[in-house]
Amino acid sequence: MNLTVAKRFRDITEIHINSLFKIRFEDDGDMDASIDMDTRLRVVPFILKFDKLERVVFGGKNEIDGSSITNFSSADCYFWEGDRGYPNEGPRDSLSAFLDMISGAFSCDALPKHLKMSGLCCPDAEDKAGNRSNNCQTCMRAVKSFPLQSVAEFECRGSSKNQGRSGRRHGLDVCLEKAQLESLIESRVGGSELLRSENRLLRLLGRGRRYTLPSEDGKLLYMVKYSKEELKEIKRVIQYAGLDVKQLSMEAVSNAIVQSFANNNGQIPSREQLYLSELSIKELRDKIDLPIDDLLFDRSLEELKEHIQKFVWVLDRGERGTNEEVSEAELYIHNNIEIDCLEIINRLLANNTTDVQYADLVLIQCLVYNLGRYVGKERRVEASSCLMSILMKGTNEQRKTVIDAKAIPPLIEMLDSSEESLCRSAIASLANIATSGTEEDIKAIVKADTIPKLVKLLEINACVTDSLQILVLAAGSNDTNISLKQPDLLPNLINLIKNKEREEEPNLILNCSILLREFLRTIEPNDVKTVIDLGVFPRLLEIISSIEDESIRTHLEQAMISIASSESCNWADLAGAGFLPILVCLADSKDDDIVKQATSTVGTVTKIKAEYRDMLLSSGIMQPLLQLLKSSSSRRLLKITSLAFSTCCRGEIDFDMSKQALEVFTNKLLGHYYSVDVLSNTCWALFHILEGLSIDEADQIINIGFTQKLLNLLRSSPESVQHAVLKSLHLLTKSGDSYIQLIIESSGMECLSQELTSSNETIQRLSCSTITNLFDYDDDQLQTAMDGNLVTCLNDMLVIDKNKKQALWTIYILTKIGNVGQVKQLVTEGCVSQLCNTLSSDCNTAIQAIWSLKNVSTL
Questions:
Q1: How far apart are CA 714 and CA 230, in angstroms?
Q2: ∠ at Cα 728 (723, 676), nearest 5°?
Q3: Cα–Cα distance, 807 to 787 (Å, whole number)
Q4: How far apart are CA 277 and CA 427, in angstroms?
């Protein structure tokens, strides 16, 4: 600093002094600044020689090669003097003394009031040695003595780093609190007006952080972004100054923001090189309500696409990607705009008119890195959204690159996040990979420890669809370690099924039904209890009854049949919860296996309690059962169905259903080619139907033809069938003269007479009773019966206690309506002798015998 030279250039308005600090970088990236003693002593005398000087800018030189340090900020430094650094007081006191020297020069008017000092910082501004206090006399003297316009540009507590890293000048960085700084300024003449002026806000807007984004072609892009602290300060200043932002000029505000793009010399790059962070625009315009010229700052996607590699460069630094030619300073400096670059890339990828050809290995690796738990929520959301776009719109090769870059593990880890946006973004990407990927991709996602996470996400509305999709794929996996038996799965599925507001969502009901089926495939008592407690049966009945999608219906039917077939199910609880109507739907299924199980269950349930049978009847069980009897050719199914139908016929059945059933019996089932079980069940069903008919109703069905079918079965059927047939025939003989006449005309007497010789006491008794009803109607039938070995059978029945009563009654009718010859036949064949033997029986039996003997004696 030659004073003679200074005299020769006294008209100079700006001086850069880069010799005050000598900079060295440590291995850990920290900067140390040695204070040059000679420069510190000679600065003030030197600058006093320049009468027209307007600004002095202090900087540093690289200690190794002497080159000037760009983007230098003394707030970043540890200060050294010789070999002494913190906590030694020497360098701290040395710099403080230098600042006091400048303050003194201003106080005594040695330096002009318009002169501005840039690049200086109180050694305690960053508090790196724990020395900062609120009563730093050096900073307080500077605030009171520096020109007021300079004080207005003071930084506070290390905030000058932002200006230095942006390549712009900055005022003195003091260690005072903001409120204390403002209080000192207000104490000066004109200070209050300065702090509350519109220009103060505009100066703040002109100090946004500027970032330089290089590219291989040498073309630079400059991005400006306001940090959270800066935005908070802008809001505070607006409130402090009582400014009405709506009254601010859009031009003034926009021009102030443009100043943030200026370099150290105040030069502003061309518009094509400027990009104002979209996140900052939203804060300034939408939350702070500042008027901003959109035409000046908005960038179309086509414009942004030209800079895509610059945005990738920001992400691809050091360990984040493959770029290893980036300094530690650059790694740190650009860290704050990674979220902005991700947001831009996401917009480009999501744009329908934009392809994803630039989604190469480097970008994908960067995106996968930003899925990590240590990068912050916003970046993780944007990165996963970018990957989602690549998966949806990219090529198979790009999809493979995403998977090979090991994107699946961090995406799975994100499912545990308490942030819904992270879960939503991660599950969407995983669902895409699983749905469109290979079997190996699915296995990589669907692991045993992933299932509980997916189940938990069913509680988040925005994650339901994708979670269900992956769980369905898990259900179809061959991995034996995968189990859907998660405690929360069944309640979550049922809640989704019950939610009618979601029923229109594509595949939601289908996937829920698939998972419900898989969960209940191996049912446990607690599962049934959960289903009952959540009251889903009415909703399932609604879906099964009305759904057009056969796949959904089948899955739900399989799930419900698992409940019905469970050995642990409590039918009292199921019936009370509304399950029985579902059982009716299951019996009407198009799946043969479900029909068999449902029909078998109907037969079981109706035997448990008459109330359940009546509930099934009121729900319409007869129609699907009858249809099965009518159309099925499966012997096993006919056996099961005929049993269920027969049991149901014990309840109240309307006449139309009874008529349809009798027609099916007559036309199909009452034939010898069916199994004994089917025939027996059918005949019992027929008996119960007839039992429930009135005389008038019975007359309306006489022409159906089942009477002849019954007589045909009586001739050669097993005893189990004959028993049911005889019960029906006996009932018909009480149903009016028309049926008796029909039986007689169909050779019914001969058929019945053959059964009198049966060794089965029940069949013998029923045959006898039916025959009695016939010849009680027509005398001619009596001789037919007697010719059929009737008397011998009656003699045999008199010695059997169970049949004795019926035999005595038949003999009494014979003695009453028979002619002399027929009564003589009774005597001749030993009937009188047997009657006399019964006189020693109980009183009632003896009286019946006496009545018959009396009738014989009167002839």
A1: 103
A2: 45
A3: 17
A4: 28
